[in-house]
Design a protein that fits this description.
Umud Fragment, subunit A; globular; 2 helices; about 30% strand; about 150 residues; about 25% helix; alpha+beta
C-alpha cells in the first residue's frame, strides 16, 4: 500500500470513528454526483444520525463504503420482511444506489460551506424529487465546457 492510499485509509477511519462517537465532522466534497446541490470543493458537515434520529426522504446522507463515504440524497425508504432499507441517489446520477440498512448510514449533511475552490454556496435543502435528468445534462455540459 502506498503512502497516499494509507493516508486516505487513516483519515477515513478517523472520520468514521468520530461520527460513531457522536461528533460532527467536516469533509471536502469531490465529484459531481450531487451537482448542482453540492459542488466539488464544497466543505460539508456530517452530523451523526443519533442527533436527530433516522433520516427522511429528501435529506442528504453519508453512506459508508469500502473506499470511504459517499454523499447522496435519500430517495426512498423500503420495508421488506420487517427490515428497513434505504435507497440513495446522487442528484445528477442516472441510477439509484443499492439499498442499504441503517448501519451503513454514517450521518446526515447539516451544512455546507463554500471555499476558494468553490465559492458557490451549496443547497442542502430537503428535495424529494430532484431534476435528475436536467442535473445530469448540466454536469455533462460543464465537463465538456472544461475541456474546451
Amino acid at each position: 500500500m502506498n503512502n497516499l492510499t494509507n493516508s486516505h485509509a487513516i483519515v477515513k477511519d478517523v472520520g468514521l470513528t468520530l461520527l460513531a462517537e457522536g461528533k460532527t465532522i467536516r469533509i471536502k466534497a469531490h465529484g459531481y454526483s450531487m451537482f448542482p446541490s453540492i459542488r466539488p470543493g464544497s466543505l460539508i458537515l456530517i452530523e451523526p444520525l443519533n442527533v436527530k434520529g433516522i433520516p427522511h426522504e429528501g435529506e442528504i446522507i453519508a453512506i459508508r463504503r469500502e473506499a470511504g463515504l459517499i454523499v447522496h440524497r435519500l430517495s426512498k425508504i423500503l420495508y421488506k420482511d420487517g427490515v428497513t432499507y434505504y435507497i440513495a441517489r446522487g442528484d445528477s446520477n442516472a441510477y439509484a444506489d443499492k439499498p442499504v440498512k441503517i448501519d451503513k448510514i454514517a450521518g446526515r449533511i447539516v451544512r455546507a460551506e463554500s471555499t476558494g475552490e468553490n465559492p458557490v454556496p451549496a443547497d442542502i435543502s430537503i428535495k424529494k424529487k430532484p431534476t435528475y435528468f436536467i442535473n445530469r445534462l448540466r454536469v455533462i455540459g460543464l465537463l465538456v465546457w472544461k475541456k474546451i
